[in-house]
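re: ur question from earlier - yeah i can do the single chain one, its not a big deal. heres the input i used so u can compare w yours
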Amino acid sequence: MDAITLLKQDHKTVEKLFKQFEKAKQPAQQRKLARQVVKELSVHAAIEEMVFHPAVRERVPKAEDTVLEALEEHYIVKWVLSELEDMKPDHERFKAKMTVMIESVRHHVEEEESEMFPKLQEELGTTKLTDLGKKLADAKQKALRKETGGSIVEGDLASLTKDQLYEEAKKADIEGRSDMTKEELVKALAQQ
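and the output i got, formated as tokens:
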């Protein structure tokens, strides 16, 4: 999978959580969704900062200002995420803080997809974007392991592609992996 496709999938995952949060009425459901958002955005920001932004800075000279702005947006979002992580959903500022964070992330995604991604596509082409996508996928697996204390939980696995699951199964030396469906790979990896 190429880098742009992987990052756009992350954007879609987070946007779906945002919409669920905006519709949620129960504090417990809002809290659960907020925790999922914190995890997803933490991993996404980490892989962008470790792999994606350095690649863009190196290969797309005209994107320097856009990358620096993106890094500042990440900083602000991570700060808000750290506050949300321990905030109770009945706190008077919980929903307002989530709303501001959601607006900030949506702005960031819009800029990334309309400005940075097209520049990167033009500069790198398909092969280099695919190589960068593999590096991002590897970084994402490492970040997910860190988030879950060394193991990937089944919900995280379900968000991976079959190819990514196969690679994880290969690393875990799971027998019969080449004949497994995506769902079977998820279950086998979750039992590791």
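The mean pLDDT is 86. not sure if urs matches, ping me
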